[in-house]
């Protein structure tokens, strides 16, 4: 008698698992961003979230409205316990991983626990705004075994980069610096010029020296080298601005005054 | 003021929100990945792969975390929280077998099988209204492929005992056997042909008979039933000492009530062997433990460990499986103090490892010859509660490593007597923590105070004297100088910034009655740990620190004061009334602590100006510090709402600027009220946030959100002139989105710039007069995951932009969302105008994806953080962060980049090389130039 009882009960149990629980399997396919889904961290899991119909659930039962499925060996998530809640539900399906960002899905479940459809969804958009369809229950198919297994593929959107790159010291970058280039050119002149001068024929040298004497740059350099500092009549600011040296006093710079006045005013007001 | 302005300028110049650099990992942050105290019955060494000889250490802890630890360095390989049971369960079971990459755990009604190498799920199953009483893996000797998944035999208790065989690959039930007799389901055991279901049948008068039912392995049919006459000895399940799992030790062991004789039965026979317990010590036996091998092919030898108050000894027995006879083989000597025994198996040989307070010994089960003996490095060792060992025989000698669980909750690995590593698993039960304050700062502060109060000449003399006295540190300083210079070039260790308060100690009080000090400058290492509670456990509510001292307040009103540098208990105060929390009044010299009882009433009144806001009986109460009889005001939420949480601005919350300068140079003045309270009240599918004034109890602002799942975490935080909260928001209206939401609200004095509202030029205001209401600007974002706890970074002067610190429980991370991102004035539906762009505003987008650069925990798996603390340092740019509750995680946040320190990005070597190159250049060029000048002078003349 007991034997009979136990065997029938096990049979019943097997049957009941087939009928009640409709499993939803989320598969992570290899993609460019995630070539090996098996390399995902052990803490990766998927959740189905929705608001419970009433806050007072029978005590001792976990809320069926935040279902969790851990990552399996085959890089899937299996929600086995999509039990009926007596009312159609619309869940948000998330794959939780710190390193990878997955597309959120919308999962509609019928009152008897059947998965009605899976769509992509967009965060921050109305819930009715559904994206690409991933699975929809076809009314014609009544095969119970098929109904209980719904498989959808998860989609990796992006990979998070956690770290800041530190700028590395490289000599090449050093030579990209205009200051360094200027210094190098100046150095080249200092060492190269006398050599060049020596190799010139005397006629050309005479002409060159005459030329350079007229130029203010070499004049300034020479006087700087002579240790006397800038000569009294050399308008350094004017030379920097590209103006020709003139013996007269400094030019008035009136037109710029109005533009800077506003700045000055606001600074005073803020202080 | 000028310094502040400069700092503000500096802070605004550098780009905000920066992630950490790769080379800063383990340098600025530390992480203790914890499992919780390992349980003695579900901890073992296991070789997860049949191809490799390497083994890992597995445990199912008392916190119901299943994890694998690398025995080499004590790092966690993987861990999973298996407490998903619908029925309450406080302990679990885990079983695995060598060479198979699968382990099965059971907690309550939830069974799961995990890959032992990487912690991925193999299958899970749950059986409602039942709980797992015992679990065995079927070890079949004649299995074709030894590495194949092994089926599980699980015994369920509940209304009736049920034995089920679950498939090893998918977890489906192969057969089940229901026991309707009403016996107490106890254990299961298996052999190669039978499954034995052991239950306790209540006898007529009192006590229990042991009933052994053997079931067919393939069908689950009942073959045979035996009842052992044990009713005189056994009064409950705890009376049975041991039930063996398989053919290696098919034993049921119990004692008589007087603990004079040990009774042993070989499962499947009716014969009971009685062994006299030879207790000559005269002391009462505290515990009798049976250690037997669990592996199938090992010799049927077992060890009985006797422990009295002061001594311990053991006896080794051999079982003849054919005749079911049990014979004593040898004794292990009686030693003073405690012993921890563990069993290990190599091939078929069984080894027993004994750890005592001074040495570690290994014997074989076959003979009493000691194969290895090692004195322990630092005797006397703390008492070990249980241990697991792995023995490797090398010719005549052996090598052994043992992982011992100590009384303090530490988990220690000893290899041949050498201490390898310690995991402070008790820290997983941290309930309260705080930063310690060092003593020397107090000394200086005191000296400065003296100077401030004296007349100018005396103060000058005092100062000169102080500086002369400081000279005595000069030789020491000079001695350290070369080392400091060299190390500053090679590394920039945290120690270089010690004087800026970067590496502070954290005092942590755990639920097992211990207090730990973690050194923030030394990777969070434990500097000391002491048992501070007199009882086994306690419930600390707060740790209050003052220079050199830390006081732990517990929920029964008692407190313990400890010395921060040594951990020595300085003072204890006895228990008074049951407390909910404590309030700290900043009063010099020592902070004043007032307990708040369960109803929200302060237990004492103090003669100081101050106000408390407390939670009690579902309402918010406001108290004056000098009156604990009647509250000044009460805030009762509307019918159907319940207050679950209240938060206020942090105690240290300086405001750098009272207004916000807009793009057109006008100012929006912040509503800065130091007495703000944000109360969270939940109703049926709704949540309301009330912003209250703490002095008058007036509601300044209230906002209600509908369609909220109140079972999901609802977190809130407040600082300066803004507050933030998050919740799960569901679809109420068809145009609603579904998801977790984060709302930021900013408070301003007026909606118009350059307008201070009714307060205008008033220098003072009173909460009791007509308090103007703030102008509230809010924006809400959809976020990808829940936030379980919120905090705000704190810096010394509040100039650095703040970060909202959020604990993400679903991805085990801690993030800091920069405030500029969470600006409630971001333009909606259009691009920002140039003036708005100048303010740093950018277009609002309803979905806020968490940027990887915000992750303070980067790739670390920071699990179970319940509370996050933030503290300022002497560097304005840097805020210290410490999270506890599950794992321990500490880091430094620089929300506006480290603008006041030269970080690793500043290459000192490059600077030095540039100087050297320039010097060389000058040395080479100067004689040339001089020669040229001389030449020129001669030529000119």
Automatic annotation (TrEMBL), chain A:
Q: Which UniProt keywords apply?
A: Membrane, Signal, Transmembrane, Transmembrane helix
Cell compartment(s), UniProt: Membrane
Q: Is the keyword Membrane assigned to this protein?
A: yes
Q: Which is one Gene Ontology cellular component term of this protein?
A: EMC complex
The residues the entry assigns to the signal sequence are: 1-23
Q: Which InterPro entries match?
A: Beta_sandwich_EMC7, EMC7
Q: Where is this region: Disordered?
A: 236-271
Annotated ER membrane protein complex subunit 7 beta-sandwich domain residues: 36-182
Keyword Signal, does the record have it? yes
Q: Which domain of life is it from?
A: Eukaryota
Q: How does it sit in the membrane?
A: Single-pass membrane protein
Q: Which Pfam family, just one, is annotated for this protein?
A: EMC7_beta-sandw
The record's listing under PANTHER family reads: ER MEMBRANE PROTEIN COMPLEX SUBUNIT 7
How is this protein named in the record? ER membrane protein complex subunit 7 beta-sandwich domain-containing protein
**Lineage, uppermost ranks:** Eukaryota, Fungi, Dikarya, Ascomycota, Pezizomycotina
UniProtKB/TrEMBL annotation, chain B:
According to its record, what are the GO cellular component terms?
A: EMC complex
Q: Which Gene3D superfamilies match?
A: YVTN repeat-like/Quinoprotein amine dehydrogenase
Q: Give all residue intervals belonging to the EMC1 first beta-propeller domain.
A: 19-425
**Compartments where found:** Endoplasmic reticulum membrane
Q: Specify the protein's topology with respect to the membrane.
A: Single-pass type I membrane protein
| GO annotation, biological process | protein folding in endoplasmic reticulum
Q: Does the keyword Glycoprotein apply?
A: yes
Stretches assigned to the ER membrane protein complex subunit 1 C-terminal domain: 719-938
Q: Which residues form the signal peptide?
A: 1-19
Protein family according to the UniProt entry: Belongs to the EMC1 family.
Self-association or partners: how does it assemble?
A: Component of the ER membrane protein complex (EMC).
Q: What is this protein called?
A: ER membrane protein complex subunit 1
Which organism is this protein's natural source? Aspergillus bertholletiae
């Amino acid at each position: 008698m007991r034997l009979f009882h136990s065997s029938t009960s096990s049979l019943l149990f097997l049957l009941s698992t087939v009928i009640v629980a409709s499993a939803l399997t989320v598969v992570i396919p290899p993609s460019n961003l995630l070539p090996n889904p098996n390399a995902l961290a052990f803490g990766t899991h998927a959740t189905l979230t929705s608001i419970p119909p009433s806050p007072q659930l029978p005590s001792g039962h976990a809320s069926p409205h935040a279902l969790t499925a851990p990552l399996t060996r085959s890089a899937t998530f299996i929600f086995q316990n999509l039990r009926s809640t007596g009312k159609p539900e619309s869940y948000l399906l998330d794959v939780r991983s710190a390193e990878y960002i997955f597309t959120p899905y919308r999962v509609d479940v019928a009152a008897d626990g059947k998965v009605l459809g899976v769509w992509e969804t967009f965060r921050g958009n109305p819930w009715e705004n559904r994206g690409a369809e991933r699975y929809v229950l076809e009314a014609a198919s009544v095969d119970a075994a098929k109904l209980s297994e719904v498989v959808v593929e998860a989609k990796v959107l992006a990979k998070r980069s956690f770290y800041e790159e530190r700028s590395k010291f490289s000599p090449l970058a050093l030579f990209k610096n205009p200051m360094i280039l200027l210094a190098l050119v100046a150095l080249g002149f200092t060492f190269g010029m006398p050599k060049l001068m020596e190799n010139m024929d005397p006629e050309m040298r005479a002409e060159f020296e005459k030329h350079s004497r007229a130029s203010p740059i070499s004049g300034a350099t020479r006087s700087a080298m002579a240790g006397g500092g800038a000569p009294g009549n050399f308008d350094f600011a004017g030379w920097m601005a590209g103006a020709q040296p003139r013996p007269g006093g400094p030019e008035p710079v009136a037109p710029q005054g109005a533009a800077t006045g506003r700045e000055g005013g606001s600074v005073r007001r803020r202080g | 003021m000028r310094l502040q302005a400069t700092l503000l300028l500096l802070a605004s110049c550098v780009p905000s929100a920066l992630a950490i650099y790769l080379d800063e990992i383990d340098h600025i942050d530390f992480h203790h990945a914890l499992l919780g105290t390992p349980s003695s019955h579900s901890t073992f060494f296991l070789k997860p792969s049949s191809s490799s000889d390497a083994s890992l250490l597995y445990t199912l802890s008392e916190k119901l975390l299943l994890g694998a630890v690398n025995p080499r360095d004590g790092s966690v390989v993987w861990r999973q929280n298996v407490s998903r049971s619908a029925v309450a369960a406080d302990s679990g079971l885990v079983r695995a077998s060598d060479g198979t990459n699968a382990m099965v755990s059971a907690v309550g009604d939830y069974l799961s099988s995990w890959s032992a190498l990487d912690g991925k799920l193999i299958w899970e199953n749950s059986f409602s209204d039942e709980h797992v009483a015992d679990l065995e893996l079927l070890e079949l000797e004649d299995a074709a492929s030894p590495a194949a998944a092994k089926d599980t035999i699980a015994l369920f208790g509940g209304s009736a005992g049920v034995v089920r065989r679950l498939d090893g690959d998918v977890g489906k039930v192969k057969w089940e056997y229901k026991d309707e007799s009403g016996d107490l389901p106890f254990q299961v055991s298996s052999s190669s042909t039978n499954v034995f279901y052991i239950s306790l049948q209540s006898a007529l008068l009192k006590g229990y008979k042991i009933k052994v039912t053997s079931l067919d392995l393939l069908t689950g049919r009942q073959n045979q039933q035996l009842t052992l006459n044990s009713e005189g000895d056994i009064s409950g399940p705890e009376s049975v000492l041991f039930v063996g799992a398989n053919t290696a030790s098919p034993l049921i062991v119990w004692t008589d009530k007087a603990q004079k004789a040990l009774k042993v039965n070989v499962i499947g026979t009716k014969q009971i062997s009685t062994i006299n317990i030879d207790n000559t010590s005269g002391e009462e036996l505290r515990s009798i433990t049976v250690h037997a091998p669990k592996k199938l092919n090992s010799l049927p030898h077992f060890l009985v460990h006797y422990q009295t108050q002061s001594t311990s000894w053991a006896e080794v027995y051999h079982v003849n499986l054919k005749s079911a006879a049990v014979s004593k083989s040898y004794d292990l000597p009686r030693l003073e103090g405690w012993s921890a025994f563990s069993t290990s198996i190599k091939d078929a040989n069984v080894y027993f490892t004994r750890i005592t307070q001074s040495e570690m010994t290994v014997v074989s089960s076959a003979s009493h010859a000691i194969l290895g003996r090692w004195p322990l490095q630092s005797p006397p060792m703390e008492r070990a509660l249980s241990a697991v060992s792995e023995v490797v025989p090398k010719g005549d000698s052996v090598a052994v490593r043992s992982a011992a669980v100590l009384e303090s909750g530490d988990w220690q690995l000893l290899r041949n007597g050498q201490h390898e590593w310690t995991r402070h698993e008790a820290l997983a039960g941290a309930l309260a923590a705080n930063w310690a304050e060092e003593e020397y700062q107090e000394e200086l502060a005191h000296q400065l105070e003296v100077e401030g109060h004296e007349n100018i000449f005396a103060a000058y003399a005092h100062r000169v004297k102080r500086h002369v006295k400081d000279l005595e540190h000069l030789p020491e300083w000079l001695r350290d100088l070369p080392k400091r210079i060299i190390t500053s070039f090679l590394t920039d260790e945290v120690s270089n910034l010690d004087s800026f308060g970067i590496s502070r100690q954290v005092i942590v009080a755990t639920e097992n009655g211990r207090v730990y000090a973690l050194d923030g400058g030394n990777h969070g290492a434990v500097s000391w740990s002491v048992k501070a509670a007199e009882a086994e456990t306690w419930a600390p509510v707060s740790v209050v620190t003052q220079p050199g001292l830390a006081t732990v307040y517990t929920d029964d009103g008692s407190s313990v004061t400890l010395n921060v540098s040594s951990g020595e208990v300085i003072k204890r105060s006895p228990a008074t009334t049951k407390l909910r929390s404590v309030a700290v009044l900043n009063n010099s010299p020592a902070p004043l602590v007032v307990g708040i009882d369960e109803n929200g009433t302060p237990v004492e009144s103090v003669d100081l100006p101050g106000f408390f806001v407390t939670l009690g009986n579902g309402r918010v109460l406001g108290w004056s510090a000098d009156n604990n009889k009647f509250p000044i005001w009460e805030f009762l939420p509307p019918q159907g709402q319940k207050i679950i949480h209240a938060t206020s601005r942090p105690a240290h919350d300086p405001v750098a600027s009272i207004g916000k300068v807009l793009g057109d140079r006008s100012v929006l003045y912040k509503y800065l009220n130091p007495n703000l309270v944000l109360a969270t009240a939940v109703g049926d599918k709704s949540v309301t946030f009330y912003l209250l004034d703490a002095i008058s109890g007036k509601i300044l602002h209230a906002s209600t959100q509908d369609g909220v799942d109140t079972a999901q975490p609802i977190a809130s935080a407040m600082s300066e002139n803004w507050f933030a909260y998050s919740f799960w928001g569901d679809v109420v209206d068809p145009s609603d989105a579904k998801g977790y939401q984060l709302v930021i609200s900013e408070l301003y004095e007026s909606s118009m710039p350059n307008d201070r509202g009714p307060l205008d030029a008033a220098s003072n205001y009173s909460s009791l007069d007509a308090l103007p209401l703030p102008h509230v600007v809010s924006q809400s974002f959809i976020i990808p995951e829940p936030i379980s706890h919120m905090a705000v970074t704190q810096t010394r002067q509040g100039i650095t932009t703040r970060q909202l610190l959020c604990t993400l429980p679903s991805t085990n991370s801690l993030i800091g969302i920069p405030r500029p991102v969470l600006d409630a004035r971001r333009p909606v539906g259009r691009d920002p105008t140039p003036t708005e762009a100048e303010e740093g505003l950018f277009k609002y987008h309803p979905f806020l994806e968490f940027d990887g650069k915000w992750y303070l925990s980067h790739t670390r798996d920071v699990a179970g953080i319940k509370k996050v603390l933030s503290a300022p340092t002497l560097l304005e740019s840097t805020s210290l962060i410490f999270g506890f509750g599950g794992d321990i995680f500490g880091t430094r946040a620089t929300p506006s980049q480290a603008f006041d320190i030269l970080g690793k990005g500043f290459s000192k070597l490059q600077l030095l090389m540039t100087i050297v190159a320039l010097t060389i250049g000058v040395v080479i060029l100067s004689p040339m130039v001089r020669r040229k000048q001389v030449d020129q002078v001669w030529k000119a003349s």
